Amino acid sequence: MTRKRYISLILILGTLTALGPFSIDMYLPGFPAIAKDLSTTVAEVSLSLSSFFIGISAGQLLYGPLMDRFGRKKPLYIGLTGYLFASVACAFASSIEALIILRFVQAVCSCAAAVASVAMVRDLFPVQDNAKVFSLLMLVVGVSPMIAPTVGGYVTAGFGWEAVFLILAGMAAAILTAVYFGLPESSKPDPSYSLKPKPIISKFIMVLKEPQFYTYALSGAVSFAGLLAYVSGSPLLFMEIFQVNEKEYGWIFAFLSIGLIGASQVNSIMLRRYRSEQIILTALACQLVIGTALVLGTMAGWLGLFSTIACIFLFLCCLGFTFPNASALSLAPFTKNAGSASALMGATQMGIGALATVVLSLFSNHSAVPMAGLMAASAFLSMMILLLGQRVIRARGLHYQTDGAAAGAIH
Predict the structure, then answer these.
(1) What architecture is domain 194-411?
(2) I need a surface site. Which of 18, 104, 176, 288 has the fewest CB within 10 A?
């Protein structure tokens, strides 16, 4: 493979990977404007984010089997085309109910890009290069939350929230063109691959019976729910309670993302001296302390804008250690069913995250207490799940080595 071809493939796969994060983060600064235009509340608008997370959860379980059965590009074409039309429809949504439904459709379609990017790395590059390529793609995922809300803030301020969805549609059109002309079909269709529910479900059940999987996947997913509670609650927190504008919100969101990204990179260094089990336990303990301080400080009225940002920054730093190690430990027992385990883990994370955002919307009282309380609760429940699950693992004498490289990146 020539260097030019290598760079071309990386760029196209990187854009596929970035589509999901941009879809989540780019419209966040527009929450107050959407609420005003659709005659609803910011809490109601946040349900469109919840429906997106539900769509991602369902879509991850859908596209894996489809791409094994029909090849990579046909499902990808369908997904990107559906995403394009759903994005345009979001821009012209006339009610919050319509926006919520269209965001679900947009999310399901966007999963085609995420699943294809992972599968095609394995198809197109030598095994020894996969870790390097995945690191580059994970860097795109990490940088996207820094860029997307900042760009979204300026677009919303200058052209209105509808323009954000039209830009996302334009991204989909550009990616679709690049995929058509620049990506080869990396996997031939396999007519023998069964799409019947029974064999697919049986693989998922086999994965769920593994104590190490359900301990770390569930603990990681509940901890991850704290991140999604922050993402969902941040527009109300910063733009309504602290009265920052769309552009300032974008910069705050970008700064806070540095905590998550930076910690995940430090995690790679820590893994040279400590095991994943040690790191995740320490990180969750710190996350619980910080979450408790955040909710108590919020309830007492002690925290201003900068102290709130500091607490959330530290909370996200803890997640930068918790989430990648939980992912690596969840998948460590699997070789044969690694694909099913990965899809189930992703669906669990997004499913629980979606539930957290719905709960946040239901208990919204125009204060920061529900968001802070949910973040603290996620840390507490995650710690309890981890401690109880580790007791089961020790009782059964189970232990699996993790790949430090895999644990060092956010999946």
Answers:
(1) Up-down Bundle (1.20)
(2) 176
- Superfamily of the domain at 1-184: MFS general substrate transporter like domains (1.20.1250.20)
Distance spanning both ends of the chain, measured CA to CA: 26
Report domain extents, the chain. 1-184, 194-411
Residues 6+ apart with CB under 8 A from 389: 211, 214, 215, 216, 218, 219
Domains 1-184 and 194-411 share a fold: yes
Q: Name the token pair of 387.
A: 């401690």
Helix 338-362 to helix 305-331 angle (10° resolution) is 150
